[in-house]
């Protein structure tokens, strides 16, 4: 090992045994396989999160629409009640002044 280190000092090449080469090659391939699986998993989670976000936005829009409709109905009821009260007041004033 020491002689290999000394020899590689003067060269751009490093010599490794066939066992070291096989080990490093297999380890690299395994790391690539694991990283590919992790990337696929993360992409799947991203897609799930996007779908959930879209679903929440649709629910929010639906709820906002329902709230607006409820407000409109309540405003209409308020207008009807107010007109009814004004009519009753006018009738009472007519009775009193008559």
Give your account of this protein's structure.
This protein is mostly helical. It has one domain. 90% of the residues lie in helices and 0% in strands. It has helices spanning 2-9, 18-97. The chain is rod-shaped and about 125 Å long. The mean pLDDT is 88.
Whole-Å distance between the termini? 123 Å
Beta percentage is under 5%
- Which structural class should the secondary elements be placed in? mainly alpha
Q: What is the count of DSSP helices, taking H or I runs of 4+ residues?
A: 2
Largest sheet: none
Give the tally of β-strands.
Answer: 0
* Average predicted local confidence, pLDDT: 88
What number of domains?
1
Index terms:
mainly alpha; 98 residues; single chain
Write a concise synopsis of the structure shown:
With 98 residues, the chain is an all-alpha fold. It has helices at 2-9, 18-97.
Walk me through the topology.
Elements: H1 2-9, H2 18-97
């Amino acid at each position: 090992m020491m002689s290999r280190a000394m020899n590689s000092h003067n060269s751009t090449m490093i010599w490794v045994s066939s066992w070291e080469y096989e080990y490093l090659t297999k380890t690299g391939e395994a790391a690539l396989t694991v990283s590919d699986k992790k990337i696929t998993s993360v992409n799947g989670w991203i897609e799930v999160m996007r779908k959930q976000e879209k679903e929440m936005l649709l629910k929010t829009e639906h709820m906002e629409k329902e709230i607006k409709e409820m407000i409109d109905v309540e405003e209409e009821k308020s207008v009807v009640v107010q007109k009814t009260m004004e009519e009753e007041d006018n009738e009472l004033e007519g009775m009193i002044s008559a």
